[in-house]
Amino acid sequence: MEVDCVWNTYLLANVLNLLLHSCVCVDLSYHVEEESNPFTFVGDIAADTQMEETDSLVGNNFITYNQMQQQWTANSHLFNVTQDGKLYTAQTLDAEKLCTYESECVRYIKVAVRKRKTFLKIIKIKVIIEDINDHSPEFPQKEINMTFGERDGEGAEGLIPDAIDKDIGMENSEITYKLKKQFSDPFILSVRKTITGGAKIGIILGDKLDREIQDSYNLEVIANDGG
């Protein structure tokens, strides 16, 4: 009978251990806006791991969460994890600086889960840093002198550089252009997308020019983003 008792205890311990492993083996995904202040709440790891399970954690008062250390740089320590599983920002996040050439700004965090001193699992957390429309598109030059001759016919074109928007979000960095001019000015704006994602901006002559009638024109190209 004593042997049976020890065997049953062993089985119970293993079943409990497997249950705890399955409860915390969950990958999570959170969103946080850039420019949020330090200590902004991002998510509750402890609560969200339990929500995805049919059974609640057994003895979860003894479960602690610790962010795994990585090589520290100014841009690496972006988040803090409390021992009870709360995830916060550690500094103000700037999506443009963190993810300059990426369409989506993502950081991954690994959190070690322990029950008392026993290691249980590592949870991998994906944090999407959402871009806000905090930049307006700007042209590299404020003014450009463009020359057309009287011999230039309809369809002659002069090119200008496209505008640059530092926002990385697809919606916030999508630029549209319009031409501001006098109604009688014989010019048309041409915008052609390039394979690199930029634009080829042209001022097209819509009619022949006559220097004796008018020798100069002031045109304004306006760039707007989608935010």
Automatic annotation (TrEMBL):
Its main location: membrane. Residues 32-139, 163-227 form the Cadherin domain. PROSITE patterns: CADHERIN_1, CADHERIN_2. It is a single-pass membrane protein. GO terms for molecular function: calcium ion binding. GO terms for biological process: homophilic cell adhesion via plasma membrane adhesion molecules. The keyword Zinc does not apply. It is found in: Membrane. GO terms for cellular component: plasma membrane. Keywords: Calcium, Cell adhesion, Glycoprotein, Membrane, Repeat, Signal, Transmembrane, Transmembrane helix. The keyword Cell division does not apply. It comes from the Eukaryota. This is Cadherin domain-containing protein. It comes from Octopus bimaculoides (California two-spotted octopus). The lineage of its organism: Eukaryota, Metazoa, Spiralia, Lophotrochozoa, Mollusca.
